[in-house]
């Protein structure tokens, strides 16, 4: 069973930046698509961004397009989320997730392994 550990969350002012990391255990990280999701209090978990096994395909929610960038380093078993121009509405717990497929999906149900989450709070 893969373990996913997120880090890099914190408190930042609106307009600031944060970089989240998700370290995965195991030797098959490079075989699978990865994604970032977020969940704000009282709301459902929602798709943020995802990346294919090679990094050649990326997908973004409209709300973060142009501000967030997903990337991965398969040699380090790590996926990253660079978040720029942060807004108060980006405040949420951010989760990384793995999909047992080479291509990503935008759906929560298509990802089978999840990290514990990291809190991102953006103050106005």
What does this molecule look like?
It is globular and about 40 Å long. A hairpin with a 4-residue loop joins strand 7 and strand 8. Strands 2, 4, 5, 6, 9, 10 and 11 form a seven-stranded mixed beta sheet that branches. Strands 1-3-8-7 form a four-stranded antiparallel beta sheet, with no helix packed on it. Helix content is 0%, strand content 48%. The chain has strands spanning 4-7, 10-13, 18-24, 33-39, 46-51, 58-60, 68-73, 78-83, 92-99, 113-114, 118-123. It has no helices and eleven strands. The protein is mostly beta strands and 124 residues long.
Features:
124 residues, 48% strand, mainly beta, globular, 0% helix, 11 strands, 4-stranded antiparallel sheet
Strand count, sense and barrel status of the largest sheet are: 7 strands, mixed
Helix content: under 10%
Q: List unreliable stretches of 5+ residues.
A: none
Strand content: over 45%
The computed structural class is mainly beta
Task: Output the helix-strand order.
Answer: EEEEEEEEEEE
Structural shape: globular
CA radius of gyration is: 13 Å
- Terminal CA distance: 40 Å
Number of DSSP helical runs: 0
Number of DSSP E strands: 11
Tell me, rounded to a whole number, the average pLDDT.
96
Task: State the gist of this model.
Helix content is 0%, strand content 48%.
